[in-house]
Specification:
Radius of gyration of chain A: 13 Å
Order of helices and strands of chain B: EEEEEEEEEEE
Structural class of chain A: mainly beta
Number of helices of chain A: 0
Order of helices and strands of chain A: EEEEEEEEEEE
Helix content of chain A: under 10%
Structural class of chain B: mainly beta
Distance between the termini of chain B: 41 Å
Largest sheet of chain B: 6 strands, mixed
Shape of chain B: globular
Largest sheet of chain A: 7 strands, mixed
Strand content of chain B: over 45%
Oligomer: heterodimer
Number of strands of chain B: 11
Helix content of chain B: under 10%
Strand content of chain A: over 45%
Shape of chain A: globular
Radius of gyration of chain B: 13 Å
């Protein structure tokens, strides 16, 4: 089956620890995205990448980092510098055109204790 | 940058009735307007989209209208069913931004 996988579904970390969220896609998409979703708010873009070894900051990149070493993988690290890291994180991918559909993974709910 | 406002935040309708969700955007250069449906515990899924060169698009019970002059677009769901219950997000994008800006979402509940 083609799609996007995110793991784990639920993640708990202590305050001050860095944590890495996994995102893998087998759709052969060039573009990948990370969004943050908070209750009552829309999806806000953290980072996106259109090609291997290149990525751009979105609207709320502070306290996050990404890498794109392989086309199919786009991991997100939530660093200790992120002031409010508890949220639902969604990964998406698409072909390169602006009008191409973004396909979303099932999300990871991160709770920082 | 782009700003998208979505109303209402919650909407309850009786099964079989119609539901309308409205969005406004700020960037006149925006030219792509998708709508996503998110079921509980899942990622959003595209249900319909419209480009700025058309004013209306329909797909079975779902339709989207776009008014570029007023900078607003709407989602219309007819003959609602319980499985339509979900959170719906509108979004806008322009070629210059190359990213989607999402509205805050509408929780639609279809009452049997």
């Amino acid at each position: 089956d083609g799609g996007i996988t995110q793991s784990p579904k639920y993640l708990f970390r202590k305050e001050g620890q860095n944590v890495t969220l996994s995102c893998e896609q087998n759709l052969n998409h060039d573009a990948m995205y990370w969004y943050r979703q908070d209750p009552g708010q829309g999806l806000r873009l953290i980072y996106y990448s259109q090609i291997v070894n290149d990525f751009q900051k979105g609207d709320i990149a502070e306290g996050y980092s990404v890498s794109r070493e392989k086309k199919e993988s786009f991991p997100l690290t939530v660093t200790s510098a992120q002031k409010n890291p508890t949220a639902f994180y969604l990964c998406a991918s698409s072909r390169l055109g602006l009008f191409d559909e973004q396909f979303f993974g099932p999300g990871t709910r991160l709770t920082v204790l | 940058g782009e700003n998208v406002e979505q109303h209402p935040s919650t909407l309850s309708v009786q099964e079989g009735d119609s539901a309308v969700i409205k969005c406004t955007y700020s960037d006149s250069a925006s030219n792509y307007f998708p709508w996503y449906k998110q079921e509980l515990g899942k990622g959003p899924q595209l249900i319909i989209d419209i480009r700025s060169n058309v004013g209306e698009k329909k797909d079975q019970r779902i339709a989207v209208t776009l008014n570029k002059t007023a900078k607003h677009f709407s989602l219309h769901i007819t003959e609602t069913q319980p499985e339509d219950s979900a959170v719906y997000f509108c979004a806008a994008a322009s070629g210059s931004a190359r990213q989607l800006t999402f509205g805050s979402g509408t929780q639609l509940t279809v009452l049997p």
